[in-house]
Amino acid sequence: MCTIQKIVLHICCAPCATEVVERLKNQEYGVVGVFYNPNIYPQEEYTKRLNTLKKLVAKINFQLLVGPYNADKWKKQIEETKEVQLEVEPPQKEPEGGERCKICYRMRLNYTAEIAKAHGYKIFTTTLTISPHKSAEIINYIGKEVGERHKLEFKEFDFKKQNGFKQSILLSKKYELYRQSYCGCKYSTKLNK
Question: How crowded is the C-beta side of 35, counted as CA atoms within 13 Å?
């Protein structure tokens, strides 16, 4: 009897999870989703995205763990890191994909690794690389760094390849999922207007 290997998947939103979960299941992984996104602004948007993800879980059946929503912790980490260590423009003036985003990726992937380790899982990854607006190279680099620190394997993917993003749009329509118009944080809302 073959045991299915579990992979802990950081999930940014339901639309991105559609194709990613399907792909991982096709590669014979058992998916344990982690929704940890304290960057999402405002809280009503966070709740809407979480409820949409729960709707997807009910349709395609995978395990979901939900982390705490702590927007103040996210904001403090972004602002403190910017002032003290990076000495660059305030986060609201930075382009999408800049240093602010790298800090955010690291925070969310670190939490995902902590959850994986706490539950005895050895492998983790993220849905973030399905977005055409995000660099898989940067995300995978950060994920690998986080994995090494936690003594876990970060599985590198570029889920946007092989029409991943296009497929996520089609699946989102099929499952009638809410699709947001910005990444998540209050700074990204301004960039999309």
Answer: 23
Domain ranges in the chain? Answer: 5-191
CB atoms within 10 A of CB 64: 18
pLDDT of residue 97: 74
Task: Name residue 115's beta-bridge partners.
Answer: none
The single residue listed with the structure tokens 């602010």 is: 100
Helix (H, G, I), strand (E, B) or coil at 159: coil
Largest CA distance in the chain: 56
Decide if domain 5-191 falls under CATH 3.40.50.620. Answer: yes
Model pTM score: 0.91
Return the DSSP state at 82.
Answer: I
Q: Are 122 and 8 in contact (CB under 8 A)?
A: no
Query: How many angstroms separate the CA atoms of 101 and 188, rounded?
Result: 10
Query: Within its chain, how far is the Cα of 178 from the centroid?
Result: 17
For residues 107 and 120, give the distance between their C-alpha atoms in angstroms, rounded to a whole number. Answer: 20
Strands in the chain per DSSP E: 5-10, 29-35, 63-66, 123-126, 153-154
Instruction: For residue 140, give Cα distances in angstroms to 74, 102, 134, 137, 190.
Output: 21, 11, 11, 5, 26
Give pLDDT tens digits for 119-155: 999 999 999 999 999 999 999 999 999 999 999 999 9
